Amino acid sequence: MTDLFQEPDDATPLTAEEREGLLQTWITNRHDLNEAEEENILKATAWARRQKNLASVLNDEFAKSLHKRMFGEVWQWAGAYRQTGKTIGIDAYRIPVETVSLFNDAHYGVKNKTYPPDETAIRLHHRLVAIHPFPNGNGRHARLMADLVIQLQGKEPYSWGRGKLADVGALRTQYISALRAADDHNIQPLLAFARS
Q1: Rounded to two decimals, what is the model's pTM?
Q2: Which of 51, 67, 72, 102 pairs with 45 at a CA distance of 20 to 30 A?
């Protein structure tokens, strides 16, 4: 079994204090942690898919509630914005302002058809990952947010390469590469990956 807190090289490591937020004492290795988080995420996904309109999804409170539902049975800090610096993301003190701005921009973009629906949702995903508002789970959270945004526009949710991106491997490498291309203002690889 792998070490409980061993992350892929491109993942955001937790601080010692954040690690202490693990709620389930039966979780002793990475496999257990992945299973517990996945079970929690499945419940959160079922809840999230019951949302009826974009206004209920494209806001700061919903984003925090969704993260809490995705990770709240596993992590004490689930649903709370991070208070620490990370190797990725903006400074922690900027998170509340930047997330509100992100959701306002996304709502405006959908309403005014600034981009096609797929591009609107994928741009939201990329910007949410770039902000990196939570101690962990940001990619999974941002993918589910994008799925909700596209679904509420009457389109199919994304396939995200049809695999588990939490696992180390070619699929995760492709996803990270697409995110980095988007960092360089080329959204096309991320759009293609989301529908692959």
Answers
A1: 0.92
A2: 102
